[in-house]
C-alpha cells in the first residue's frame, strides 16, 4: 500500500485543517509524517475480517427523554464572549 | 429533458434540541436558548433526543423507506462560523431509512434516504451598514432536522414544487412537520439538462422559491446549451429578491468532510426502537381505510387528508351519520374554505350544525345555494340559522315571480316580442333575493310562470 | 508499609485535629515555591471555596488542565485556550466537590494530551521531582508530579494512550486508569473520545480505592458512561498473571526487564502463577492507536478557531477561512499541528478505508485477543515504560516516530479500554521504574487487590513531602 504523501498532499491537508505552514515547516512535517506513515504501513498486514469497534466496550441505545430544561443560565455562558446586542461576533461570511 | 433531484431539510417539532435539552422554540432574544453542548464548548457532550429519532422513523416509514437495523451518527467536519464545533453531527453510512418513494399524480418519485442531523446556528449579515463581521445566534444550533434525499426523478420545476408540497402534506399528516412551517423548509436542488452537467442550488427556502429557482436555472442552462456552450458543474445560491441563481463568490476548494463515527454517542438499534414506539397511520393508509369503509374515491379522500388532518377527522365522524359522499363533497369545498378563513373556530364546536345541514342536503330538503350559505353562516355566527327548505323556497320563488309578473303586465308583452327579455326578470329576482335561489331554478320558474300567463 | 495517606487525613479531619482550610492555606505557598523549580501547576487557586460535608471532606485535589473547573483557567496546555474559564464543572469535579474535597489547582500537561513527556506544554514542561533535568512523563506530567510531592492529596488525570501510566511510572507514584466509560468524560476537553479515560494518580492504591467509587458511576450527561456495571471493590484472590511475550521481549533496557522478572518472582513466591503468553496482534497497536486518536483529535480540535472562547482571532473584518487559519497557525504547537494533519489525512476520502476504518477493525482484533487471555489469567503484567525518565535534551533529539514507538507498552491496554494501574516497582540510579498491571473490562477490583498485595511488600520513596506527616 503506497501512501502518497507528497508536498501537494501536505498542502491540501494543511488547508483542510486551516493551518498555514512555512516552507520549512512543510519540509519538516513531510519528513516527520512520512516516517510515521512508513512505520504505520505494517497495519496493512493486520487481519481485519470483522466489524469496526467504534468503542472499546459495547455502548448501545441510550436516549434522552424529550423534555426542555435549562441547567445553566445562558446569559452566564455568553457573558464572557464577544457579543453585540446578544449576538456572538464572528468573521465575515460574505 | 430536465432532471431534478432534491435534498429537503425539515425541522422536527420536538420540545428540546437534538443533542441537548435546550428548548426547541423560537425566541426573540438571540443566544437565549443555548448551553455548553449547542455552543460547542470544550468538554461538552451530546445526548440523543429519543423523540427526534422516533419522528425520523415515522417520516421514513411514511415515505415507504426500509428502516435500517442499526443506525449511528457521524461527524462531518468543515469550518464555518455558524457551526458551533466546526463539525456537524449528522448521519453518513447509517441513515434511518433508505429506498423509499412517494406517489404523486400516478408517478413514483424515489426517495434515496432519510436521516437525522443538527441544524447550524443562524447568521445575521445586515445588522448595520458596512457590517465588518458576522453576528451569530446559536438558538437554532442543535435543532433537530431530518434530511430527505430524493432520486433525480423529477422532470420540471413545477413537478418539483408539487412533490415538495405533497411530501410536506404527508409529513404534516403524521405529525413530523408542523402546519404553517412550510416556509422554514430548506431545500438543496440538483438540476441538469440531459447530457449536461449537474448544478446544485443550495439553501432554497419554501416552496415558491424552489419553483422560481429551478425555473431560472433551467432557462439559464437551456440558453447555454442552445448557444453550444457547456454548463459548468458548480454550486449556486438563489437570490430571492432578484429571482436569479448566482455562482458562489469565492472559488472555494472542495471541502473533504472526512466523516468519522461520532465517538461520544452509541450505536442505536432501530428495530428495538421502532418496536417500542407507536406509528401513526399515514394519509395513504387512512384514506384507504375511509374509502373502503364509506365507499369513497381514495384519491379524493387522500387529497382532503393531505390538506388537513382535522377535516379528515370531521369526514370520518360525520360519515357515520350522514351520506359520506355528500360529507366529502361539502368538506372538500365550502367547509374547507371557511375553515381556513376562520382558523379560530374549532371544528368540534360547529360539528353539530354542519351535520344538520349535510343531513338536510342528503335528504333532498334544501338546495345547494341554501347549503352553501348555511355553512358560511355557521363559521360566521356559529349557527346555520333557519334552513329554507326546498319546498318552502320553491313556494316563495313562485310567489315572487308571480308577484312581479302580475304587477307588471308590460313585462309579458316584452317577452312575447323579445324572448330574451326573460333573462332580465331572472336577473332581477336573483338580485332581489340576494342569491338565495339556484339561478337555473329561477329561470325555470320564470319560464313556467310566463307560459302559464300566455 | 506504604502509608494510606488520605484515610489518615480524613481521620484527622473528623477527629478535629486538622482543619482543612488551615492545612491548605499553609500548603499553597510551599507549592508556589516548589512550582518555580518544577513547573507542575498550570494554575493554583488564590482563594479557597468552602467544603461540603462528605466522605472526602477537606481532601485537596488537583485536576489535569484539560478537565473543566467552573470559573477556573482551564487551557489543556495550549495557547489557543488562553483565558478560558469554563461556565461549568466537569462531572468528576462536581462529584469531588459534593463529597467535600477541595480544589487547589490545575496541573500541566502536553497540549491537548499530545505527548509522552509533557514537553509539548505551552506553559513549559513540568520537571521530574527525582531529577529536575528529566521529564515527568506525559501527558499527565504535572498530575504525577503533584502526587509525588504532596502528601494527602489526589490528582485527577486523564489517559488516551498511556498518559496516566507513563508519568506515574516516571514520577514513582500510583497511576490508575479505569475501564473506558467508568468515569464520566463530561467536562473533559477531548483528545480522542473513544480512547480518553479520566483516572487517578496518588501515593497509594488505598487512596485510589477511596476516591474511585466517588467519581465513577453513570452520568446522563455522558452517554458512553451509561453502559457500566456497578463498581464493587472487594478483595479478590489473584491466582495467575500473564506476560505478553512480544511486549517484554521488545524492551531494550536490561535493567528494567531484570527488575520486572524479579517482581514476577516475588508474585510467584506469594502463590501466583506467572506465564508468558503470545499476543502477536499487539504489534499493530501503535499504528491503530495513533490513526484513531489523531482522526478523532483532528475533529475535536476544529472548534478552536478564535471565536466564542479562548484566544480570540485578531480581526473580524476578514473572511472566515483567513481568520480561522491565522489564529490556529499561531496558537497550536508543532505536535498539535502534526496530529491534526495526520488525523485529517487518515479521514480523507481515498485514505479513509485504508487508515481510519482499518484501525477500527484492528482495535476489535486486539480487544478479542485480550479477552481470550483474560479467560485464562486474572491479570496481565509488563513494565510500564521501556526506558527511565529521559533528560530533556535527549527528548529534543527524538523524532516524532521514535517518541510514538516508546508507548508500545501502554498503548495496547489503552486502545482496548481495559483498566490498568502503574505502581513503583523499584529504583534504578535513583530514578523510579513502574510495573503495569492490566485486567479485563470492569475488573477494577482485581487491580486494587493486586495493588494491596503489592504495597505490602514494597516501600515507595518520595523525594519531596509537602503537607503534614500524619
Structural write-up:
The complex is a heterotrimer of chains A (94), B (454) and C (470). Chain A is mainly alpha-helical and 94 residues long. Chain A has a domain of 39 residues: Orthogonal Bundle (Histone, subunit A), CATH 1.10.20. Chain A has a two-stranded antiparallel ribbon with strand order 1-2. Chain A starts with 6 loop residues before the first helix and ends with a strand. Chain B is an alpha+beta fold. In chain B, 43% of the residues are buried. Chain B has 15 helices and 16 strands. Chain B has three domains: 275 residues, no CATH class; 99 residues, no CATH class; 63 residues, Arc Repressor Mutant, subunit A (Orthogonal Bundle). Chain C has an eleven-stranded mixed sheet with strand order 1-3-2-4-6-5-10-11-9-7-8, with helices on both faces. Chain C starts with a helix and ends in a 15-residue tail after the last helix. At the A-B interface, helix 3, strand 1 and strand 2 of A face helix 2, strand 9 and strand 16 of B.
What tags apply to this protein structure?
heterotrimer; A: 94 residues; mainly alpha; Histone, subunit A; two-stranded antiparallel sheet; 3 helices; 2 strands; 35% helix; 6% strand; flat; B: 454 residues; alpha+beta; Arc Repressor Mutant, subunit A; 3 domains; nine-stranded mixed beta sheet; three-stranded antiparallel beta sheet; 15 helices; 16 strands
Amino acid at each position: 500500500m503506497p501512501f502518497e504523501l507528497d508536498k501537494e498532499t501536505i498542502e491540501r491537508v494543511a488547508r483542510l485543517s486551516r493551518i498555514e505552514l512555512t516552507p520549512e515547516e512543510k519540509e519538516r512535517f513531510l519528513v516527520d509524517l512520512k516516517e510515521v506513515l512508513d512505520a504505520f504501513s505494517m497495519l496493512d498486514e493486520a487481519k481485519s475480517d470483522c466489524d469496526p469497534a467504534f468503542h472499546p466496550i459495547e455502548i448501545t441505545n441510550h436516549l434522552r427523554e424529550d423534555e426542555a430544561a435549562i441547567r445553566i443560565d445562558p446569559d452566564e455562558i455568553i457573558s464572557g464572549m464577544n457579543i453585540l446586542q446578544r449576538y456572538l461576533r464572528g468573521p465575515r461570511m460574505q | 429533458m430536465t432532471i431534478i433531484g432534491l435534498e429537503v431539510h425539515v425541522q422536527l417539532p420536538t420540545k428540546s434540541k437534538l443533542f441537548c435539552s435546550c428548548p426547541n422554540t423560537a425566541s426573540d432574544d438571540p443566544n437565549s436558548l443555548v448551553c455548553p453542548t449547542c455552543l460547542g464548548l470544550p468538554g461538552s457532550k451530546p445526548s440523543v433526543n429519543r423523540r427526534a429519532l422516533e419522528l425520523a422513523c415515522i417520516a421514513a416509514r411514511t415515505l415507504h423507506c426500509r428502516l435500517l437495523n442499526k443506525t449511528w451518527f457521524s461527524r462531518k467536519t468543515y469550518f464555518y462560523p455558524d457551526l458551533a464545533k466546526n463539525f456537524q453531527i449528522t448521519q453518513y453510512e447509517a441513515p434511518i431509512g433508505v429506498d423509499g418513494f412517494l406517489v404523486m399524480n400516478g408517478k413514483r418519485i424515489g426517495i434515496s434516504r432519510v436521516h437525522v442531523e443538527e441544524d447550524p446556528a443562524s447568521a445575521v449579515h445586515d445588522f448595520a451598514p458596512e457590517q465588518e463581521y458576522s453576528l451569530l445566534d446559536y438558538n437554532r444550533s442543535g435543532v433537530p432536522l431530518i434530511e430527505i434525499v430524493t432520486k433525480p426523478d423529477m422532470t420540471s420545476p413545477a413537478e418539483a414544487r408539487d412533490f415538495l408540497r405533497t411530501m410536506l402534506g404527508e409529513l404534516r399528516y403524521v405529525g413530523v412537520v408542523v402546519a404553517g412551517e412550510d416556509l422554514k423548509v430548506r431545500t438543496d436542488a440538483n438540476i441538469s439538462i440531459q447530457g449536461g452537467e449537474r448544478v446544485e442550488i443550495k439553501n432554497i427556502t419554501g416552496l415558491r422559491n424552489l419553483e422560481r429557482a429551478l425555473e431560472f436555472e433551467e432557462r439559464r442552462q437551456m440558453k447555454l446549451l442552445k448557444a453550444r456552450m457547456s454548463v459548468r458543474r458548480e454550486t449556486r445560491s438563489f437570490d430571492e429578491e432578484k429571482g436569479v441563481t448566482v455562482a458562489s463568490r469565492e472559488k472555494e476548494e472542495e471541502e473533504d468532510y472526512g466523516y468519522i463515527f461520532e465517538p461520544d454517542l452509541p450505536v442505536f438499534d432501530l428495530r428495538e426502537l421502532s418496536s417500542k414506539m407507536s406509528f401513526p397511520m399515514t394519509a395513504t393508509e387512512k384514506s384507504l381505510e375511509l374509502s373502503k369503509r364509506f365507499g369513497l374515491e381514495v384519491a379524493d379522500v387522500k387529497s382532503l387528508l393531505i390538506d388537513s388532518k382535522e377535516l379528515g377527522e370531521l369526514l370520518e365522524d360525520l360519515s357515520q351519520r350522514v351520506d359520506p359522499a355528500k360529507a366529502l363533497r361539502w368538506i372538500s369545498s365550502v367547509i374547507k374554505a371557511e375553515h381556513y378563513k376562520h382558523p379560530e373556530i374549532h371544528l368540534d364546536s360547529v360539528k353539530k350544525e354542519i351535520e344538520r345541514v349535510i343531513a338536510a342536503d342528503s335528504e333532498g330538503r334544501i338546495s345547494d345555494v341554501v347549503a352553501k350559505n348555511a355553512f358560511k353562516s355557521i363559521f360566521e355566527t356559529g349557527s346555520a340559522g333557519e334552513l329554507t327548505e326546498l319546498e318552502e323556497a320553491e313556494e316563495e320563488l313562485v310567489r315572487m315571480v308571480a308577484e312581479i309578473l302580475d304587477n307588471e303586465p308590460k313585462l309579458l308583452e316584452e317577452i312575447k316580442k323579445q324572448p330574451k327579455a326573460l333573462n332580465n326578470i331572472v336577473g332581477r329576482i336573483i338580485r332581489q333575493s340576494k342569491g338565495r335561489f339556484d339561478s337555473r331554478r329561477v329561470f325555470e320558474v320564470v319560464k313556467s310562470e310566463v307560459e302559464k300567463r300566455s | 508499609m506504604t502509608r494510606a495517606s488520605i484515610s489518615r487525613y480524613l481521620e484527622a479531619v473528623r477527629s478535629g485535629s486538622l482543619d482543612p482550610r488551615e492545612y491548605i492555606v499553609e500548603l499553597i505557598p510551599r507549592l508556589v515555591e516548589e512550582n518555580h523549580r518544577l513547573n507542575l501547576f498550570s494554575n493554583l487557586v488564590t482563594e479557597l471555596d468552602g467544603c461540603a460535608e462528605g466522605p472526602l471532606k477537606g481532601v485537596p485535589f488537583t485536576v489535569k488542565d484539560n478537565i473543566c473547573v467552573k470559573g477556573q483557567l482551564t487551557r489543556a496546555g495550549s495557547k489557543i485556550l488562553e483565558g478560558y474559564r469554563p461556565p461549568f464543572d466537569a462531572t468528576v469535579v462536581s462529584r469531588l466537590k459534593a463529597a467535600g474535597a477541595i480544589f487547589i489547582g490545575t496541573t500541566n500537561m502536553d497540549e491537548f494530551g499530545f505527548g509522552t513527556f509533557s514537553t509539548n506544554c505551552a506553559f513549559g514542561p513540568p520537571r521530574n521531582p527525582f531529577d529536575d533535568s528529566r521529564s515527568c512523563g506525559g501527558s499527565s506530567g504535572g498530575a504525577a508530579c503533584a502526587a509525588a510531592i504532596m502528601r494527602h492529596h489526589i490528582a485527577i488525570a486523564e489517559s488516551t494512550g498511556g498518559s496516566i501510566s507513563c508519568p506515574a511510572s516516571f514520577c514513582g507514584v500510583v497511576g490508575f486508569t479505569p475501564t473506558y466509560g467508568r468515569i464520566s468524560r463530561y467536562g473533559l476537553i477531548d483528545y480522542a473520545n473513544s480512547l480518553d479515560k479520566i483516572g487517578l494518580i496518588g501515593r497509594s492504591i488505598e487512596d485510589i480505592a477511596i476516591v474511585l467509587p466517588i467519581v465513577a458511576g453513570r452520568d446522563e450527561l455522558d452517554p458512553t458512561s451509561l453502559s457500566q456495571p456497578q463498581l464493587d471493590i472487594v478483595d479478590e484472590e489473584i491466582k495467575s498473571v500473564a506476560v505478553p511475550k512480544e511486549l517484554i521481549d521488545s524492551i531494550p533496557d536490561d535493567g528494567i526487564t531484570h527488575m520486572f522478572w524479579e517482581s514476577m518472582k516475588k508474585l510467584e513466591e506469594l502463590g501466583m502463577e506467572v506465564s508468558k503468553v503470545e499476543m502477536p496482534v499487539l504489534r499493530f497497536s501503535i499504528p491503530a492507536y495513533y490513526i484513531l486518536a489523531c482522526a478523532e483529535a483532528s475533529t475535536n480540535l476544529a472548534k478552536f478557531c478564535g471565536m466564542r472562547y479562548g484566544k480570540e482571532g485578531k480581526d473580524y473584518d476578514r473572511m472566515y477561512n483567513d481568520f480561522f487559519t491565522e489564529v490556529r497557525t499561531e496558537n497550536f504547537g508543532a505536535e498539535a499541528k502534526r496530529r491534526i494533519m495526520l488525523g485529517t489525512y487518515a479521514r480523507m476520502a481515498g485514505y479513509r478505508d485504508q487508515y481510519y476504518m482499518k484501525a477500527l477493525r484492528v482495535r476489535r482484533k486486539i480487544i478479542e485477543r485480550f479477552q481470550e487471555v483474560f479467560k485464562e489469567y486474572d491479570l496481565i503484567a509488563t513494565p510500564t515504560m521501556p526506558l527511565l525518565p529521559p533528560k530533556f535534551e535527549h527528548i529534543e533529539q527524538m523524532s516524532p516516530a521514535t517518541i510514538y514507538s516508546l508507548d508500545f507498552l501502554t498503548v495496547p491496554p489503552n486502545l482496548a479500554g481495559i483498566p490498568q494501574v502503574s505502581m513503583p516497582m523499584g529504583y534504578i540510579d535513583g530514578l523510579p521504574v513502574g510495573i503495569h498491571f492490566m485486567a479485563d473490562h470492569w475488573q477494577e477490583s482485581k487491580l486494587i487487590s493486586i495493588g494491596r498485595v503489592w504495597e505490602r511488600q514494597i516501600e515507595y520513596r518520595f523525594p519531596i513531602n509537602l503537607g503534614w506527616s500524619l
